[in-house]
Amino acid sequence: MAKNGEPDYDQLGDEGECKVKIICLGDSAVGKSKLVERFLMDGYKPQQLSTYALTLFNYKTEVNGTKVLVDFWDTAGQERFNNMHPSYYHQAHACILVFDTTRKVTYKNMPQWLKELREYRPEIPCLCCANKIDVDYNVTKKSFGFAKKHRMPFYFVSASDGTNVVKMFTDAIRAAVAYKNDSTDFMDEIMRELEHFELETNSKRSNGKADSSSSSPRDDKNDTKSSNDS
Ligand SMILES: Nc1nc2c(ncn2[C@@H]2O[C@H](COP(=O)(O)OP(=O)(O)OP(=O)(O)O)[C@@H](O)[C@H]2O)c(=O)[nH]1
Ligand SMILES: [Mg+2]
């Protein structure tokens, strides 16, 4: 722990693990907390940092054989003021931008969130997700240009039924670790994977087989994580 009781991500974990910090940004009530909770299910340990009213969710995993400690930082509503405390961005290795497919304004605000992120963290990998697709799956037929414009991986997700949640967080963790290790071409790799993923998804959907297909976006619904022992 560094000063202020916050973790120091430059240091290794107690067992030599690589430590990464992932933050979520987006308007209030888009589902940031629910997405993290959904990913971690019952395997998380919330840890309160009272100074800035933040919750840290710790998660242990492995990336390419290396042990990784992930801290997902979750806010307690500061975003209502559209201005996060700088400590929220400090040392972050990846960011997930979240909007709510049932509220257009939350999508319109994406550029603002990205702008603020880039003021503090110009280089970190950023992923974008459209949440609450369970409310109306037809929304996945729409295209959302924001992510493409900024060359960000894009995911249709639902914290409610779990669609694509594991896929998105797994990619975010891989991106965070790659960023920490100075690996520059990693985002391209994710983008290439997703192009393929989307293609399969779209073609299966147009054949009316979306829900039974192994490559449909609902894949992750019953996914379990292999090393969530934190
Ligand atoms: N239908 C549906 N509702 C969702 C989904 N994700 C979140 N919600 C609901 O949306 C509301 C807000 O979710 P939160 O996770 O608290 O949103 P948040 O972004 O953390 O909000 P703040 O902490 O205020 O910034 C809650 O009532 C959730 O139950 C989803 O995938 N589908
Ligand atoms: Mg929240």
| CATH level-3 fold name | Rossmann fold
The helix/strand class is: alpha/beta
> What integer value in Å does the Rg equal?
17 Å
Query: What share of residues is helical?
Result: 25-40%
Number of strands: 7
Helix-strand topology string: EHEEEHEHHEHEHH
CATH class: Alpha Beta
Give a written overview of the molecule.
Residues 198-230 are annotated as: Disordered. The chain has 230 residues and is an alpha/beta fold. The protein has a single domain (3-206), classed as 3-Layer(aba) Sandwich (Rossmann fold). The protein contains 7 helices and 7 strands. It has a 7-stranded mixed sheet, with helices on both faces. Strand 2 (45-49) and strand 3 (54-63) form a beta hairpin. The longest helix has 21 residues, at 186-206. It is globular and about 45 Å long. The model is unreliable at 204-230 (pLDDT under 50). The structure holds guanosine-5'-triphosphate and magnesium ion.
